[in-house]
Amino acid sequence: MTRMMTLIGAAALMTMGLLAVPALAQSDAETPEIVEMVLGDPDAPVEIKEYASFTCPHCASFHTGAFKQLKKDYIDTGKVKLVYRDVYFDRFGLWASMMARCGGEEKFFGIADMIYNTQADWTRAGDPTAIVGELRKIGKISGIDDAELDACFADAEKAQALVEWYQANATEDGIQATPTFIISGDLVENQPYDDLKAVIEEKLGN
Fold it and tell me: Domains of the chain: which residue ranges?
C-alpha cells in the first residue's frame, strides 16, 4: 500500500511546529528559486516525474531496488529523463530535502541515495534534534561542511518555498500517494519494475 498524502500549506507547517528544529532564521530576502532535480539526458525521449518523500518507506524500497534497474536500463542509456519532485508528509522529510539540496544539483542524487539507504536508521534516531544530527552526518559524508549545513537548515524562506512548490506540483498533477510517477504525461502509481518498464517501452514506441 502506498502512503496517502495530505496537501499542507507552508503556513500550516509553521503553525504545527514542523519547522521548529533546527531554528530558522528570518530575512527580507526574495522568495528563493527552487531548482528542479533532474537525472539523465535533458533531451531523452521519455520524461518521468517521480513524486516521493524521504520519509516514505515505499519510496525507500523503490530507490534501493527498482530504481537501480531503471537507472541502468533507461536513464544511463539516454532513454529517460528523471525529474525528482519532493513530497513532504512531515518536518523530517522537509529537513532531509533541505539537506540534500544543500549539496547542489551535482550531489543531490548521491545524497538522496544515502538518505533512502539509511531511512530506517535516521528516521528512528530519537527526538527531532537527534534526527537532524543524523541528517547532518549524511551531509558531512557528502562533503558539505558545518557552516553550509547550518545555513541550509536555517533557511526559513527556502523551507517555505519548498513546501509551496510541493503543494503546487502535487495539486497540478493530482498526486495522492507516494511514490507516484508521471510518465510522459500519464500518471502511474507505484508498481513492480516490470510493469513500469512496460509503460516506458510503450512511450518509447517499442
Answer: 36-203
